[in-house]
Structures are given as C-alpha cells and as structure tokens.
Amino acid sequence: MLSQAHATVKQLIAQFQAHSSHYLSPKYQEAEVRADFIDKLFTALGWDVAHDYQKNPYAQEVKVEKAQCQADAASQKRADYAFSLAPDYKTVQFFVEAKKPSLTLRQNRDGYFQTAKYGWNAQTGVSILTDFEEIVIIDCRAKPDFDTILQNELRYFKYTELQDEDTFAEFYWLFSREAVAAGNLRRYIADLPKAKSSGKQLRLLGGRYLSIDDSFLSYIGDIRLHLAQAFYQNNPALNSYQLTEATQRTIDRLVFMRFLEDKQIEPETLLYNIASAAHPWAKFITECKRLDTKYNGIVFKPHFIDQNSFLGADETAFRDIASDLDHTNTPYDFNYIPVHILGSIYERFLGNIIAIDNGKAAIEQKPEVRKAGGVFYTPKYIVDYIVENTVGKIIAGKNPDYITKLKFADIACGSGSFLIGVYDCLLDYHKNYYNRYPDKAKSAGCHFDEATGTWVLSIKQKQRILLNNIYGVDIDLQATEVTQLSLFLKLLEDETMASANDMQVLFADKILPNLSGNICCGNSLIGYEIMDIMGDELAQDEDIRRKINPFDFQAAFASVFAAGGFDAIVGNPPYVKVSDKELLAYFKQHFQHQNYQYDLYLLFLERYHALLKEKGLLGVIVPNTWLQSVTFTKIRKHLLGDYRWHKILHGKEHIFDAVVDTHVLVFEKGSLKGKSLFDVDITENQTIVFYQQLDQNSFDKNGGIINILAKPEATALFKKIQAASETLGTAAMVYNGIKPFEKGKGTPPQTEQIVETKPFVKENQPKPAGEHWKPLLRGSLINRYENLWSEDSWIEYGEWLAAPRDSKIFEAEEKIVVRQTGDRIIATVIGKDIICRNNLHIVIAQQRNHKFLLGVLNSKLANFCYYQINPERGESLAEVKKAHVEQLPMPKIRSAAQQKLHNEIVKLVEQMLAAQPKARAALSDSDKNFHERFIASLEQRINQAVYQIYGLTADEIALIEAAV
C-alpha cells in the first residue's frame, strides 16, 4: 500500500539524514548501502528482495547479484537487481544498478552507461541508477552512446524529495510491484517521446532509435557484407552457396566467442587477442581449432574456411571486425540479450543470401522471403503459450526417466525459436523437479550450488535432454546451423568457466553435443518420391535439387518413428502459395486434404498428422483463413475429424508485424471421442485471456465454415434464421465485377505497358469519345442505399479487358451491388449499362424483388448473420467475399402476414433510395438534420419489419442489436 510504503521510506530517509556524514564517506561501500537502504526501499515498494516468501530460486521476481566490492567497475557483468513479474521470471521489467553514496551520480557517466546498457540489451525500456541519496530513472530504449549518455536521464530524485507524499507517489506508481503488475511502467514507457539518440545514430536513422534486435541485426548485417566482399576478393572461385556458408560460419563463431566472453565461460580477451594479433585471420582459425577440442558442436567443427587453401579475409578488414565486436568497443552484452532475441535477429538475418553480381558479393533477399513479404519472427509470448499447452502439458507430473523417452519437434524450425522454448521448458521442469526431490538430485548428476542453496543441472544433463528430446527440420541449411547455435547458447546460458572446465576434467568429454542427428536440413513436405515426377531433371540438376531438398523422415529419425512418431510438434510454418507446376503435381498426388488452392501452411497442417504419435499434441500458429474460406472444406473436415481440439488462441490484433490474421491451434491427434469442449482464448496487447468454451461437435463435419468467435446463443439464433430462409445464392445469381488489367489476360493478351498505363480506364474526366466507353462503378462509390457515381469514371468495355465477365450481367435493368472491401454489408441498387469493378459483387434475381432483398441485406439482421459467417470484424484487410454474400439468408415468404411485411419493406426501401440523395445535397445544417432524422426512422422501420418477418422475440432482437 502507498501509505505504508511511504511511512517506511520516510524512516529510511530520516536514518540517512541523521548519519549522512558516515553514509557519504568514501569508506561506506556499495554492499553496505544496498543492505542498509536500497534493499529496504524496494521491499517497501512490495518486492520480495530478501526472498522471504519466494524461496524457489527459479521462481523469484527479484534477482539480486551478490554484493561485492568491485576493483574494476568494467569487470562487473550483471546488474545489481533485476525485477520481473510472476510467472514470467525471465523477462526483466527493469534493472536497478547500485553505487556507493560518496559518488555523485549526475557526474557518473560510467554508471549511466552501465545502467542503460543493461536495460537496452534486455529491452526493459527504463532502469534505475541509485545510491539511495540519488535516484535516476534512465532511458534504455536507444543504443547507449557514452558521449551523450547523460542525456538519457528521464527523472532525477534527491532522496529527501521522497518525503513529499506526491513525489513519492510518482515514484511508487511506476516502480512498486503493484504498479508494474498493473501495467503502469509499460504504459509510461509507451508514452515517452522518442528516445534520445547519439548524433551519429540520429544522422543515420533520421531521428529514429533502434531496439537491441534491430540494432544488432543491422550490425551483423554490415559485418556479413564486409566479410563476404573480403572473402570473395581473396577466393573468387567461391559460388553463392559457398560464400554464404563461409560468411555465416564465421559470424556464428564470432558471436559464440563473444557470448563465451560475456558469460565468463572463456576469458574476456578472446576477440581482443584476435584483433591484436599480427595476423588476425590466422589467430582466429587457431582459436577456433582450440575451441573445437573443448566445445564440439557445429560452430567450431572443421570447415573449409579452416583450410589453408581458403585465404580468409583481408587482415585489416578482419582486424576491424574483431576489434569492433570486442566487449570494450561495443554496448552489446550477451548477459542480457535473451537467447530468443538472438533468434529473432537471426531469423531476419537468414532472410537474405549472398549473391555474386557482376563479380562482386552483394546481399539479396531470398525469393521465398520476398514472396512472403518478409521474415516474421514469432513473439515470445506466443511461443510460450504453445509450448506450455503442448510440451508443458505432456511432461506435467512426470519424472525425468519418463521424459527421456519423449520426442518434440518443429519441422519448419527456422532459427529455432520454438525449439529454444521447448528446451527452456524442459530445463526448467528438470531443475524444479530435482529441487522438489533433492534425494534424487545427486544420483542424477546435479550439482549443489552453495550460493543459492539449490540443485542445478550439470552440462552433461543438459546435453542429454537436448539429444533425447529435441528435433528440428528446415529446408534452409543456414537456418539449421543457427538453430544449433541457439540451442548451444541456451545450454551454456547459466554456465561458468569453472563448470565448463569441470565437464572436461570429470568426463573427458566435449561441452557441446553433436546435434547432426537431431537438427536436419530438408524439405518437410517433399520426400524422394518426387523423383517419380521430376526424374532425371532432379537427379541431374543440382540447383533444382538444392531448392527442393527432399527429406525422408523415416530414415533421418528412425528411432522416433519406430516408437510411433513425435509426442508433440510445435511451430510456425511458412505462409506462401504454391505455384511451381512440378511441386503442385507432387502435392496433388501425395496430399489428400487440399482443395484447389495450395498454400504451404495448409500442406503443413496436413503433414503434421502423419508425423505425430497417436494422442500426440500439435501446437502451431497459422493464418485463420482455413476456418473461413469456402474453398478449404477438405482441410477443415480433416482437422475436425482426425483431431481432438484443446485450444484455439485468436489474435484480436496482428500478432506479427505483417498484415496477416493468425491464430494458434492446440490439437490432439485422434478421432473425437467423449469430451468435445475446447477453449477459445483471445490475445490483446500481448495479454491472453479466456474467451469462451465451444463444442467441437457443433461444427459441420463436412467442412463448412467455422466461426470460433460466435457465442453459442448467437449460433443458435443464426441457425433458426437459416431454417426460415433460403440463401441469397439460391434466391439470386451473384457475380464478381470485372477485372480491367492483368498481364497476359484479355484478347489480345495485355502487355506490361498496358497494365502500367491503364489505357482502358479514365478517371475524373468527362466521357471519352467512342462507342465502347461506359460508366465505371467501384466499391468506394457506393454506400448503403446510395450510388455516388458522378459521371467522371469510365471504362472502355470489351474483350481486351483482363476479365470482362458476361456483358448480360451489366445489361440487366436492375441489380444490387455489394461492396467487397470492409467488414459489414454495404449495398445499393443500380440500373443497366453500369460496369462494376471487381471490388463489387453483383446480385441479380429473377423471381425476387431487388428492393426487398436490398432492405434485408442492409438490415441489422443481415449483418448479424454475416458476422456468424465471416468473423473478420475490425480486421485491417477484411473483405466481404462472393461466397459470403451467397450464404446470407433471405427470408422465405410463406404467409399473407409475411407478404404484407415484404411489401412494406419494398416501400420503405424506395423511400430510403429517394431520401439519401436529398440528405447528401442538403446545404444547411437544419436541412441536413431534417433528412438524416427521416433516414434514421426508415432504417428503424426496415429493421423492425425484417425482425417481424422472422418472428423474433424481444430477447432475440436484443441479441442482434447488441452484436452489430
């Protein structure tokens, strides 16, 4: 509580004031001020600094670095305090760096830089530097620059200022546990103005600042280009694949060396010694060979860059690279860059390859990445959700011997983000297990940590977990190498030089395991059966074989499939449409649950089933189109019939920085028996909450569209409305509008110049001369009951258009048009000889009255039904597709009372069509208000008439009104 905290802090202030000469003496050390004041200050703010309650060292919100006198501040590798929130103990909310009070903080450039460096690397946003006498809130959003670091001060408090209740409240409502848990600190950071950047950064980035991942990505991107150019200059016989691999392996080694330095597993002079050597490249290779004898793994294993025939990089260029990466010359600190952040950096890094262009090395985006619109890394909170609900559920309550037999995979692993999450989950579970059952810890190989009083896993145990439980496949060789690197970093995350050396002494073994049998390169969708389709072409053309990269799961993971398959598969498969003819032929032959549109994510959804053990769990994030697209009936039927659904997590906002709507599936392999309920969760602002529980049995087993956001009572009402209706697709014909331009389409086929210059469409001008020019109507030119075309948009209609449609559609005397773009039904009627673009749907009825259908379409009831059919409401790229329009219910007229209401709706719609132009043309506010009130009354009467046709109750009407 604020008042209690303030009372405690005022006592601390009084104590400091009473003996200030002692506390400000140079003899009074940092360790003392931490114990006497700083620990107590944050305890007063509600944090369990002394771990009086949070005894489990793996479940503590405050990580306290052991207090000691530092002979050299630069040698300190960890912040004094790191504050997190349960249950995510690994995500730091803010750091506190302590200094002794005799120092003047505002003159302590080193302290500011150190604090900002911790916070920036861990992405906390802000952190605190304090000696209790002074408290400084430091901006950690920008890459710290030593010369300008004092400008990173956001707020400064003298300890005596905290005696004032309002001033203390300002500090309390940012950094108390209560405030951080309520999101106050996160909102404070989000509302800060742009972070202050160094002058250099400002010039380079136009005033923007870079987060740690963006900055390091740019940094190693520059290193890659310089290395590639240097390698190619000295080794011109290298092809693109070899140059990419040589550069990647060199960067992996440099990053790994720096990691070992920062973790103090190796001396922190590794890179310095390389940069200082007379021949830096030769020194680098010598160090790599030494480290290989100790560490093993793919990073340092013999490679062609180690051979004398490979001339390496220019001495000066490589010296600069090694020197720049040395910890004394860069703010990057691998103590605080989480392994999953390194994964996100590498994921984007791998989206490019090194190409040789006109005799020069250059960086190019991979074609598949360009096609997909970029590389999008799965956020950690989504990885955690998936892993917790798959691997976490499987291992819960099990002992390590049982877990040893379990096999977990990501078959499109990229840089390994999901496998890192799985490995992290397994490590945490084993650590907690042995601390719950300490009698089993020593015999299992654990070490007792005297400092924390806990049992910790040995390197040997971590190796076994990695080898026994973790499997990955990716089509990209560099991705599989980075996955191994990431897993090695995770294995060594909590190790020290002593533990690493003990591993070698005790077991005469290398520190890192060989993962070549666990992490494999290949195409998870295509086996060697493709030889039957491509034959000699695949056998003889190495480039094509590299691109397709067939993979045999049974051969690669024989022991896994001898036991029935994987216990869980997790991941984020690629979302790319397939267009290659040979691949399409293969997929049509080997995949049974696909409709005519082939997308890689749909193929992966089918592929998972064959690789999972019976009752195995699937946890993946994929686009939500498989639920809603009318063309994906087969995959819906497969997922409904061959899995038991546990959870679907709907992303209320975009989970990725891409304009694609995704959700998470957690399914269990096996046909549905007994229990059929599953949870629908919602994510908003990276917070996951339960939304509702649905019955899997309630969905159409033949593959009909599924709406997981519809409430059961809304679904029941929709079914009632459907029972009293025919679909619009039955009552009328629904057509797409014309597509004017597309290269190769039309008669004669359109050229690229025609597509660019668009000669058949004229906008914002009078009608051109010529008999073929007709009015052109697009989606933005209609509103509900309104045609906004104003004689200035024209099209030269004929067979030269890319998709002109049947001219009889446009010759119809009357028709309804429905706007495609948007998340609700917007419709009006138009007359003949108006050509409609393909962002409009055209509805023509032979037996039903168009104005009646229009009134129903624009009613609240129709929009309510539309939201049951297509739950894209509020989404940025929402579209009313032709298939959605065809499914909308239109009431059957079966009685005289219904016919009377039908006629009433026709009359009201005619009045509405006449009223809308008058309202738009009104000049005065009074006239506008007059017409708008009349239109609102017509809307209300049309809605009531539609409700009455269906005989809805007051409760049912209220349900519709609340939903739309």
UniProtKB/TrEMBL annotation:
Question: Is-annotated flag, keyword Transcription regulation?
Answer: no
Entry keywords, A to Z: DNA-binding, Methyltransferase, Restriction system, S-adenosyl-L-methionine, Transferase
Q: What is its EC number?
A: 2.1.1.72
Any idea where the TaqI-like C-terminal specificity domain is?
774-889
InterPro entries xrefs? DNA_methylase_N6_adenine_CS, MethylTrfase_TaqI-like_dom, N4_N6_ade-DNA_methylase, N6_DNA_MeTrfase_TaqI_C, SAM-dependent_MTases_sf, TaqI_C
Which GO terms of the molecular function aspect are on file? DNA binding; site-specific DNA-methyltransferase (adenine-specific) activity
**EC primary class:** transferase
Catalytic activity field: a 2'-deoxyadenosine in DNA + S-adenosyl-L-methionine = an N(6)-methyl-2'-deoxyadenosine in DNA + S-adenosyl-L-homocysteine + H(+)
Entry's Gene Ontology BP terms: DNA restriction-modification system; methylation
Q: Where is the Type II methyltransferase M.TaqI-like domain?
A: 468-656
- The answer, when asked if S-adenosyl-L-methionine is one of the entry's keywords, is yes
Query: What PANTHER family has UniProt attached to this entry?
Result: DNA METHYLTRANSFERASE A, DNA METHYLTRANSFERASE YEEA-RELATED
User: What is the recorded name of this protein?
Assistant: site-specific DNA-methyltransferase (adenine-specific)
Say which species the protein is native to. Kingella oralis ATCC 51147
